[in-house]
Amino acid sequence: MLPGGYTSVLKASSREEFRDEVVRFTRRLGFETVSAIAVVDQGLGKSNFIHVDNTPAEFSESYYDPVMQRSDPVMQHCRRQSVPIIWNQETYVERGLGELWEEMAQFGYHTGIAMALHLPDGKHFLFGVDREDALPSDGEELQRLVADLQLFAVHAQDAALRLLLPLAQQPERPNLTPRELDTLRWTMDGKTAWEVGAVLGISERTVVFHVTNAMHKLGCINKQQAVLKALRLGLID
Description:
Blueprint: H1 2-10, H2 15-28, E1 33-43, E2 46-53, H3 57-63, H4 66-71, H5 73-80, E3 85-87, H6 89-93, H7 98-105, E4 111-119, E5 123-131, H8 139-164, H9 178-188, H10 193-200, H11 204-218, H12 223-232
Antiparallel strand pairs: 1-2, 1-5, 3-4, 4-5
């Protein structure tokens, strides 16, 4: 189930498709609401926040309120740390914000998991899921749930930066040649270098040459990582 969800979000070609894939994956893991936020620091303490979520309409005004976000302990944790936070009513009560939790709880925000990926050049990706029901009490089950969300967030952030940010703010993509892309596509299908060479009409050594070049350009140590990164960047599908 999970690998398909990762692949689907990587293939999203619009903001709407990205939102649909994020919501679909979230609900398959048992959460009702989700928020994916691309953040770009603009200096002087200012940042641009681009939200993709399924926040209930009647709660959206409060949810997007900068004052509320500055006081929200989950948001503040994500701004400063990369370690996921598992939150519930106690998280807010301990900080004297029980009334804030009560306001959120009216719309289904009882507990959840949130995390942040802090990237180079002042870019960040925040990802959080929420629900009414309590999280699993079994430690191993909860750990697997957090791990699934972390892995999905890694894939989703690539799609988010590609689809949500203006071109001038998007990370620079490696310039792979058509032949390098061809060899990665066939490698993705599980073919050996010899088989790829037979398909493309080139030697096995030439296939290895192109795959190795692609690995170096993508900053990867093996061809499997190169294929995955090329997928995440939208270079192949």
